[in-house]
TrEMBL record:
<dbReference type="Pfam" id="PF12697">
    <property type="entry name" value="Abhydrolase_6"/>
</dbReference>
<dbReference type="InterPro" id="IPR000073">
    <property type="entry name" value="AB_hydrolase_1"/>
</dbReference>
<protein>
    <recommendedName>
        <fullName>AB hydrolase-1 domain-containing protein</fullName>
    </recommendedName>
</protein>
<dbReference type="InterPro" id="IPR029058">
    <property type="entry name" value="AB_hydrolase_fold"/>
</dbReference>
<feature type="domain" description="AB hydrolase-1">
    <location>
        <begin position="99"/>
        <end position="361"/>
    </location>
</feature>
<feature type="region of interest" description="Disordered">
    <location>
        <begin position="1"/>
        <end position="25"/>
    </location>
</feature>
Length: 378
């Protein structure tokens, strides 16, 4: 029987046989600084996207090759823009009283509630002529990218001169158009025979308000409107993006949210909708930025004056200023109007119990407003 063979294995050899062999794959190293370059490219892409997102489209100006046709009567202003208007009441050459009506937010010259609902008896008895305008960017009035708090009163003055309204005329404004009346009292008081502000929109950032009062009123709004107006005031360059993005709710007025209307307003809405159905498409036809968004930026931006600092434009009682407001207005808190009226004792303040923001559409209201303004009848 054959014998076994004894072998001695060295420690080094044993380690070599028992060590697991590491398989090395192909190595890949990024060039130096590539991560920094990738981050820069991504950042540039995000910034480019953000820039494009906040840039509003160009308006489709009436009469331009890609814009709506011109159908309204218009004047050409000194700066080349056109201002559209509509005439109501008795013929101008037979009129005793001439009134310029300024429409509100998201509306146009056809939405001249006082002219549309004033009784024929009042029109004829007093000899009332009313001209309503499309504010810049609305209807068929050219947009004004340089629009300021002062620019529209100067446009109105030009309109009065070109139409021949005389040295003095009356102004009536509703809602956002009512806010414009404060600018008329500031910049063209010498042209006014009287003024009426109907549920005028208030800027929460006017410096004349006590902070606690304006803050309390501001937070009475729907949260989405607090954000929308805050963006318009603090970051106006984001106004277009905020009101067109889909992540958060934007302005309730732009979205036609019924929650902004009081119970009395809702009773009036069917007749309002019926009256606006035929011209609703005209309001925003030139684009929302130079109409709705510009309204927010100007109306709630930083003003160069406060209405509460205005002096009486009619110190010798040769005219009067009237402010009408409903105490159930859910859009414009009545507390702010009360404060303004307290600060300006020369303003005739009419507070309407139970009325909402749309009270001028109520039966008989236009007659009351016009008679108080023109002949002092209460």
């Amino acid at each position: 029987m054959a014998g076994g063979v004894n072998r001695k294995i060295s420690a080094a050899s044993a380690r070599a046989h028992t060590r697991t062999t590491k398989q090395s794959g192909p190595s890949f190293k990024l060039p130096s600084g590539i991560f920094t370059k990738i981050l820069l490219v991504l950042s540039a892409g995000v910034l480019a996207w953000a820039y494009q997102a906040i840039q509003p489209p160009l308006p489709k100006t009436c009469g331009s090759p890609d814009g709506p046709p011109v159908s309204a009567s218009r004047i050409k202003l000194k700066d080349g823009r056109h201002l559209a208007y509509k005439e109501h009441g008795v013929p101008l050459d037979a009129a005793k009283y001439k009134i310029v009506f300024i429409h509100g937010f998201d509306s146009c010259r056809h939405d001249a509630v006082v002219a549309n609902t004033l009784s024929p008896e009042i029109v004829e008895a007093l000899g009332v002529y009313i001209v309503s305008i499309d504010r810049p960017g609305y209807g068929e009035s050219d947009p004004n990218p340089k629009r300021t708090v002062q620019s529209l009163p100067l446009d109105i003055e030009e309109l009065a001169d070109q139409l021949g309204l005389g040295s003095k005329f009356y102004v009536i404004g509703f809602s956002m158009g009512g806010q414009v009346i404060w600018s008329c009292l500031k910049y063209i008081p010498h042209r006014l025979a009287g003024a009426a502000l109907l549920a005028p929109v208030v800027n929460y950032w006017w410096p004349g308000f006590p902070t606690n009062l304006s803050t309390e009123a501001y937070y009475q709004q729907l949260p989405q409107d607090q954000w929308a107006l805050g963006v318009s005031h603090y970051a106006p360059w984001l106004t277009y993006w905020w009101n067109t993005q889909k992540w958060f709710p934007s302005s309730s007025a732009i979205a036609h949210n019924a929650d902004i209307f009081s119970s009395e307003d809702k009773k009036l809405l069917p007749q309002i909708i019926s009256a606006t159905r035929n011209h609703a498409a005209l309001v925003r036809q030139q684009g929302e930025y130079e109409s709705l968004h510009r309204d927010l930026m100007i109306g709630f931006g930083t003003w160069e004056f406060s209405p509460m600092d205005l002096g009486n434009p009619f110190p010798n009682n040769q005219g009067s200023v009237h402010l009408w407001h409903g105490d159930e207005d859910l859009l414009v808190p009545v507390s702010l109007q009360r404060y303004i009226a307290q600060q300006l004792p020369w303003v005739h303040y009419h507070e309407l119990p139970g009325a909402g923001h749309m009270f001028p559409h109520a039966p008989g209201m236009s007659d009351n407003i016009v008679k108080a303004l023109l002949v002092g009848e209460k």
